[in-house]
Amino acid sequence: MSNFSDLRSAYPALREALPTVRLTDLPTPVRSVSLAHASGTRTVLIKEDNLSAGLYGGNKVRKLEYLLARAILRKRKTIATFGAVGSHHALATTLYARQLNLHTIAFLSHQSRTRDIAATLSTHLAAETELVSYGGSYAERIATLRQHLRGRRAMIIPAGGSSWLGNVAFMDAAFEFAAQVSRGECPLPDRVYVATGTMGTAVGLALGFALCKLPTEVHAIRITPSSITDETLLRRLATKT
Predict the structure, then answer these.
(1) For residue range 84-143, what is the model confidence (pLDDT) as tens digits?
(2) Which of the listed residues 132, 161, 190 is the one where a domain comes to its end?
(3) Relative to the CA of 104, which of 49, 63, 184, 214 has its CA 20 to 30 Å away?
(4) Nearest-angstrom CA–CA distance, 103 and 130
């Protein structure tokens, strides 16, 4: 098991190569819950990334520390990102970009209306997100991008923040978790289960655990259509990272 508490302590050259902007309050705690089932009681650990930041928690903020730092380094004033209408990634991006005086264009695809989605859209409007309806054929989507991004030096952040750079944040999270295990804050789990859509969290954790020499397996539970999430795409993303 690694003796380092974060990725850049283990690999100091990354401090300069991959700068970050501080958005999170880490490490997030690990909570133990006992669940009853047919053969007895099982202990489940919950890594509470909902507490990752005060403004808007969740796993996306970890990625944004790297991605928005890259935008600032490149002197970009506009962030363009993607997701469904209720995307937590898109909302987290606009909230933290606004905190850093960056403007966000969110290209959003259709999603059935719910109370939570209505609340998400209301928050976007309050944060002055530039909302763009995004969908249709490949040619239509390209035309939409050209229409709204022409002449604007925007930093493009993929859906879910899942790029090689965003994934590094969860390699770092793996080191954070390994340090918590090493300090005796929680036992070493056999498996970690994560909901996966754009797959960045699963890829980053799996690679990070390998670097930490943790035997813990990552099980990615697909929550999106196979056109977005499948094993081939996951392996491709891991290779790029």
Answers:
(1) 999 999 999 999 999 999 999 999 999 898 999 999 999 999 999 999 999 999 899 999
(2) 161
(3) 49
(4) 8
Q: Could you say which of 161, 194, 225 is where a domain stops?
A: 161
CATH code of 176's domain:
3.40.50.1100
Distance CA 60, CA 64 (A): 6
Alpha helix (H) ranges present in the chain? 7-10, 14-17, 60-73, 88-99, 115-126, 138-149, 164-182, 200-212, 231-240
Q: Terminal CA-to-CA distance of the chain, rounded, Å? A: 22
Tokens 């730092």 locate to 69
pLDDT given at position 88: 94
The residue with tokens 């990625």 is 63
Note the pLDDT tens digit of each residue in 182-231.
999 999 999 999 999 999 999 999 999 999 999 999 999 998 888 888 88
- Regarding whether 135 and 90 lie in a shared domain, the answer is yes
Number of domains in the chain: 2
Same domain, 135 and 207: no
Q: Summarize pLDDT for 37-70 with one digit per residue, the tens.
A: 777 788 899 999 999 999 999 999 999 999 999 9
The answer to whether residue 234 sits within a structural domain is yes
Range of the domain at 154: 73-161
Return d(Cα 131, Cα 113) in angstroms, integer: 16
Which of 24, 10, 131, 35 has the alpha carbon at shortest distance from 67?
24
